[in-house]
Amino acid sequence: MSALVTSNAIWYVMRGSGVVSLLLLTGVVGLGIATSRRWSPKRTPRFVTAGLHRSIALLSVVFVALHVLSAVFDPYAVVGVAAVFVPFVAGRSAFWVGFGALSLDLVVALIVSSLLRSHLSPRLWRGVHWLAYAAWPLALAHGVGMGSDNGTIWLQAIAAACVGTVLALVGWRLGERARGPKRLERRPVPRLAEDLQ
After folding, report:
1. How far is residue 49 CA from its own chain's centroid?
2. Is 195 inside any structural domain?
3. Measured on CA atoms in the order 171, 175, 177, 182, is the torsion positive or negative?
4. What pTM was computed for the model?
5. Contact of 40 with 49, CB cutoff 8 Å
6. Containing structural domain, residue 24
7. Pairwise pLDDT comparison (158 vs 179), residue with the higher score
């Protein structure tokens, strides 16, 4: 483990897992917005979209955990365990690390409330779930403001794509809400035995 820490590998793991986490969190937010209107692609049952949302959320938790652990073990990042959970107490880059800590705190609250969902009122669970949407812009701010890659074109392009995706889905969601609830397609009910043939 010490060879991994003293090499640049831990730095690459930290940066790579951070970028992958941002992409996965964008997917989670996007699917969360889409499934809130019970959207699913044509000819696909809704449970597939909900299952994909849940699977990407779990995968994002794995990458966030990898990102946090590698940041704690990286000797150059100088992120203590307290700074991971307590916002704005890090020694270096406390502002940007604080955004990451706030985002992580919201994700942890979402995980805990989801595990305890059967013991919570639907209103409380939904409130925590809605609050978790704030984890995405905080993670985005953390990623864009932190580290040596923050001025690179590739990271700015990824951040812009994530912002564009979420804004487009929010616009779609607001447009759907303005149109009102979806109406189910009604088919004529057969009245006579001859109509059934």
Report:
1. 15
2. no
3. negative
4. 0.80
5. yes
6. 2-181
7. 158
For the chain, the farthest-separated pair of C-alpha atoms sits apart, in whole angstroms, at 81
For residue 14, the tally of other CB atoms under 10 A from its CB is 22
d(CA 137, CA 11): 23
Q: Considering the domain boundaries, does residue 130 fall inside one? A: yes
The rounded distance, in Å, linking the Cα atoms of 79 and 101 is: 11
CB 74 within 8 A of CB 5: yes
Q: Which of 46, 34, 53 is nearest to 174 (CA)?
A: 34
Handedness of CA 14, 15, 16, 22 (dihedral sign): positive
Mean pLDDT of 164-170: 93
Q: Is residue 38 part of a domain?
A: yes
Write a three-state SS string for 35-70: HCCCCCCCCCCHHHHHHHHHHHHHHHHHHHHHHHHH
* Number of domain units in the chain: 1
Nearest Cα residue to 76 out of 10, 18, 17, 16: 10
User: Is there a domain that residue 193 lies in?
Assistant: no
Look-up of token digits 């006579």:
192
